[in-house]
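queue> holo job accepted (nicotinamide-adenine-dinucleotide)
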Amino acid sequence: MAKIAFIGLGHMGGGMAPNLAKAGHKVHAFDLSEEALAHAIAGGCARAGSTEEAVKDAEAVITMLPAGKHVAEVYRNHIFGKAPTSALLIDCSTIDVATARSVEEDASAQGYVMVDGPVSGGIAAAAGGTLTFMVGGSDEAFARAKPILEPMAKAVIHAGGAGAGQAAKICNNMILGATMVATCEGFVLAEKLGLDAQVFFDIASKASGQSWSMTTYTPVPGVGPETPADHDYEGGFAAALMLKDLKLAMEAAQQVGAYTPMGGEAEELYQRFVDRGGATKDFSGIIKMIDDSWKPRPKE
Ligand code: NAD
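queue> job finished
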């Protein structure tokens, strides 16, 4: 079993790190937040007083941080030169492809092997050990990363070279954002045309309008499987995180000159929903903005 440093124990990392401990690894955990750290310790991880302390004799380092700027800062100032060069570095945060590639280049220049391994699946999948990891890095690096990620995973997939995991993640979520908006529009138009939502679901989920947003994550309460729609759009995947991923996708599209008008439209709509107070609602809650029933929560 390996000595693993785990940095970033928030909504996602706080569920993931204990699964590594349960699998028998010695997990040295650190987070700037004492509350987050205490939760991971209760889950069987060992307390580290700093990132430097967590990584000093690690065989693998895993980070699960908010955004690219945090990842660049933590690796450049607290991990490079502090972790042994034999340690495999795995960043599981969702960040922009350019930062992922630049941090991985720096890691390589300093003698480390590093991969990007962003995840699909939310807080429940993080706690349940059923995330899908999309890994960018060399064949050799992927072969080393796979057994370490497996206790936290339903699937660990090699996406390609450095940054390919991040590329796969944002392309997937751009499709998800656009199909969720299209699915919501379909339900709203169907209702205005006098169709029963359940009947429309029965038809579209077996016809060419079918998608994950339609059949697995149905945005209408009482229709399809149980989803955040059945809990007033609480829990699930926050609209603010969908917006973050759409922004990353649009930034990447601009950098490489890709034409992504549907992604751009989805970004604009999620921005509007977040601006109107929908940030913490599940992203399928955008249906309430589309059907014009969205009533932002009163300010506390
Ligand atoms: P979060 O904000 O809950 O957790 C991030 C943690 O990092 C916090 O506890 C924070 O204190 C810690 N942190 C920040 N800077 C640090 C530093 N310098 N040193 C040590 N700790 C530091 O975020 P989250 O929801 O856990 O998401 C983490 C990443 O996973 C993000 O990139 C997000 O986009 C991605 N993601 C989230 C979800 C989700 O459903 N929440 C799903 C898939 C991917």
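queue> The longest helix spans residues 164-192.
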